[in-house]
């Protein structure tokens, strides 16, 4: 187990290192440098001013030097300075992390509450109308943009109840009820989409397990359906589901990017969009790296948990 | 040994097809289509939706009732009616015509990015799987890294770096698709590589390049089609999200995602049709591709059915 852990850890570090190179290269491969883009809307700009800013930002140095210095700062926890706010990016990100984490956790709760039961019902009633209905429901979830669903929810709430969640962030310490209501609807919008994925995995995983010999034995013993499905099959079928839930949690950030924008929640994902729109590239680069770290760490935890939960998984 | 190849591909037809054989072939095709409709009603529905989307994109000029970019200062925020079937937006542009033309943008970006991503990724996967060894290992690690980021985040960063333009959006969306395509094609290449007919080809001294393109590539077509159909839906969704955030398709192209952006949210309460119809268009198209992709996966790639 220890050797496996070490190997996975080393692999994750290598992935992140490679990731940093890819992000760095991709942003530099794009035409025009940060300074050009910054001055894009300014009309005529003195080339000397540009040169000065280039030197200020260290962009006149060789690429390798730039990369190493960026990585060094990142390792020291320095996420750079935001051009827009003119303060350290970390200062802006830190208060936003709880917002994104809370939204992601709530969305995962919605995901599991919808996805797992729907998947189980769909599997044990395979090819019946209820299976079809659930599959269409889940595919519809995968087909709707989360931001549109969010807009529809707001629209329905206003038209139907003449009420909408606050567009200004409400802290849970100020008003817990308003805070939860503010988070509930975006969580529903994002969670529905993710639940579609979980439902599909649960369904296919359970179907696979239900074909195993030991399940046939359980049926042959005359056990009731509930015991066969929940006590014998579901336990084994849920392992891949747990993995996907973990990965989905890390990947939710994609769905959160637009949903936080629609619901005006001051989260990290929205800040990424804002930083991109302000062309705050050093911050974008660091934020993307930050997201990559979250994803890779989550994957690592999920893998280790999986190996720990399922003794059949060999530590190879 | 060379017979093995005939098992995995349809039997060859003679060069000159007699009329009767042509008719038989047509009938067989129709029969297969009918069977597909009967066995996969959901997939067939998806196929019809996709067909509708393609026809709309092709015939946008004939189907549209107004110029999609023309503003009517006196006709702003009109509800759906006889003159403007799905209403007008805050600039007085006809929503129906914009949706019809938007099909073209969505399909172009979806198809363009999926094809680009799938072809580049497919080539990487093909070579990586066929060559194996160290090349494969390094490529796989590289793809792992690219996959460590959510699709939308990578596309977001790419399109921001490239600037808003239709070809940039295609490029930005295609890059995150590369590792997915490479994975799928690699795994089917790995199993094809071990087949007897490939060994036979190698034994009689067929050059590597010819083996890869002539004997391996055609057999990865099934998974490739499945992958491309499934990815088309997500490509359309990512385009919509990018355009919604103002980073995808620039004005004046009528993009569905852009139609839903800031202005729509602003006027949503006064003019709900601004929000409803473009969203329905996006969801329906993606839904169609997802339904079709699922059914094609069942038909073309039974191995993947349980995944």
Report on this structure.
The complex is a heterodimer of chains A (316) and B (307). Helix content of chain A is 76%, strand content 0%. Chain A is mostly helical and 316 residues long. The longest helix of chain A has 38 residues, at 225-262. Chain A is globular and about 85 Å long. The mean pLDDT of chain A is 84. Chain B has a single domain (57-68, 78-305), classed as MetI-like fold, CATH 1.10.3720. Helix content of chain B is 72%, strand content 0%. Chain B has helices at 3-8, 19-39, 41-58, 60-63, 95-131, 133-147, 151-162, 166-193, 196-203, 208-216, 221-244, 256-259, 262-267, 273-300. The longest helix of chain B is centred in the middle third of the chain and has 37 residues, at 95-131. Mean pLDDT of chain B is 85; it is low at 1-8. At the A-B interface, helix 1, helix 7, helix 8, helix 9 and helix 11 of A face helix 6, helix 7, helix 11 and helix 14 of B.
Helices and strands in order:
The complex is a heterodimer of chains A (316) and B (307).
Chain A: H1 2-29, H2 34-38, H3 47-56, H4 63-75, H5 89-93, H6 97-124, H7 129-143, H8 146-161, H9 176-210, H10 213-220, H11 225-262, H12 268-277, H13 281-309
Helix pairs in contact in A: 1-13, 6-7, 6-9, 6-11, 7-9, 8-9, 8-11, 9-11, 10-11, 11-12, 11-13, 12-13
Chain B: H1 3-8, H2 19-39, H3 41-58, H4 60-63, H5 95-131, H6 133-147, H7 151-162, H8 166-193, H9 196-203, H10 208-216, H11 221-244, H12 256-259, H13 262-267, H14 273-300
Helix pairs in contact in B: 2-3, 3-5, 3-14, 5-6, 5-8, 5-11, 5-14, 6-8, 7-8, 8-11, 11-14
Brief write-up:
Chain A has 316 residues and is mainly alpha-helical. Chain A contains 13 helices and no strands.
């Amino acid at each position: 187990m220890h050797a496996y852990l070490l190997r996975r850890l080393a692999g994750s570090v290598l992935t992140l290192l490679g990731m940093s190179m890819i992000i760095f290269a991709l942003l530099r491969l794009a035409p025009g440098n940060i300074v050009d883009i910054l001055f894009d809307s300014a009309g005529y700009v003195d080339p000397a001013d540009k040169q000065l800013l280039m030197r200020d930002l260290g962009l006149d140095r060789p690429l390798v030097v730039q990369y190493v210095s960026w990585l060094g700062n990142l390792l020291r926890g320095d996420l750079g300075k935001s051009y827009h706010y003119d303060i350290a990016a970390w200062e802006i990100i830190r208060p936003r992390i709880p917002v994104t984490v809370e939204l992601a956790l709530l969305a995962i709760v919605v995901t599991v509450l919808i996805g797992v039961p729907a998947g189980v019902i769909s599997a044990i009633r395979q090819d019946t109308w209820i299976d079809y209905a659930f599959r269409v429901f889940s595919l519809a979830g995968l087909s709707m943009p989360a931001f549109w669903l969010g807009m529809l929810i707001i629209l329905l709430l206003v038209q139907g109840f003449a009420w909408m969640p606050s567009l200004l962030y409400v802290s849970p310490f100020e008003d817990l009820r308003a805070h939860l209501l503010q988070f509930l609807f975006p969580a529903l919008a994002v969670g529905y989409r993710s639940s579609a994925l979980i439902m599909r995995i649960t369904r296919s995983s359970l179907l696979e397990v239900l074909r195993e010999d030991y399940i046939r034995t359980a049926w042959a013993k005359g056990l009731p359906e509930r015991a066969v499905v929940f006590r014998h099959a579901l336990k084994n079928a849920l392992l891949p589901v747990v993995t996907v839930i973990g990965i989905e949690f890390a990947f939710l950030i994609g769905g959160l990017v637009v949903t936080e924008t629609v619901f005006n929640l001051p989260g990290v994902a929205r800040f990424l969009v804002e930083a991109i729109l302000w062309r705050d590239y050093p911050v974008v680069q660091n934020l993307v790296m930050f997201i990559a770290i979250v994803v890779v760490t989550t994957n690592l935890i999920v893998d280790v948990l999986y190996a720990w939960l399922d003794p059949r998984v060999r530590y190879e | 040994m060379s017979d093995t190849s005939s098992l995995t591909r349809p039997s060859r037809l003679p060069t000159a097809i007699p009329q009767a054989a042509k008719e038989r072939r047509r009938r067989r095709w129709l029969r297969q289509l009918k069977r597909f409709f009967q066995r996969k009603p959901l997939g067939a529905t998806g196929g019809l939706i996709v067909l509708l989307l393609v026809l709309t994109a092709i015939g946008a000029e004939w189907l549209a009732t107004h110029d999609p970019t023309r503003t009517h200062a006196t006709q702003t925020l009109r509800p759906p009616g006889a003159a403007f079937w799905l209403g007008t937006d805050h600039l007085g542009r006809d929503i129906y015509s914009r949706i019809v033309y938007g099909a073209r943008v969505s399909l172009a970006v979806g198809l363009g990015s999926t094809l680009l991503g799938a072809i580049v990724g497919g080539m990487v996967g093909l070579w990586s799987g066929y060559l194996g060894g160290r090349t494969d290992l390094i490529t796989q690690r590289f793809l792992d890294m690219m996959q460590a980021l959510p699709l939308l985040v990578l596309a977001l960063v790419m399109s921001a770096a490239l600037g808003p333009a239709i070809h940039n959006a295609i490029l930005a969306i295609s890059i995150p698709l590369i590792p997915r395509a490479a994975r799928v094609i690699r795994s089917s290449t790995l199993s094809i590589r071990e087949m007897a007919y490939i060994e036979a080809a190698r034994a009689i001294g067929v050059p590597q390049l010819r083996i890869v393109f002539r004997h391996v590539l055609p057999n990865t077509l099934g998974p490739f089609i499945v992958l491309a159909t499934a990815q088309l839906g997500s490509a359309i969704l990512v385009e919509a999200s990018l355009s919604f955030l103002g980073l995808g398709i620039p004005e004046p192209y009528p993009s569905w995602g852009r139609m839903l952006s800031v202005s729509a949210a602003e006027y949503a309460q006064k003019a709900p049709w601004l929000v409803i119809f473009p969203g329905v268009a996006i969801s329906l198209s993606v839904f169609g591709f997802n339904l079709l992709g699922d059914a094609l996966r069942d038909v073309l790639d039974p191995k993947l059915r349980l995944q």
